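User: Hi! I'm working on a homework problem where we have to compare a predicted structure to a textbook description. Could you give me the structure for the chain below?
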Amino acid sequence: MTGGAGFIGSNLARLAADNDGIAVEDTYLGTPENLDPAVEFVATDIVDCRRIVERRDGITYEGMT
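Assistant: Happy to help. Predicted structure tokens:
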């Protein structure tokens, strides 16, 4: 989930915490303190998909290189 540490994203991430997802946030407006500790968090820009892939083997990112 992009924007996962913002106001709306952190609430959605909390609701989806049991579904093996991750919250991605560049922390420009969001802050990791907004997140539930059960939510996996990656502090990066979404265009840097290598950092996300390093954390989540087995995920396919179609259209990203």
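For your comparison, note the following. The mean pLDDT is 76. The first strand starts at residue 22 and ends at 25. Good luck with the assignment!
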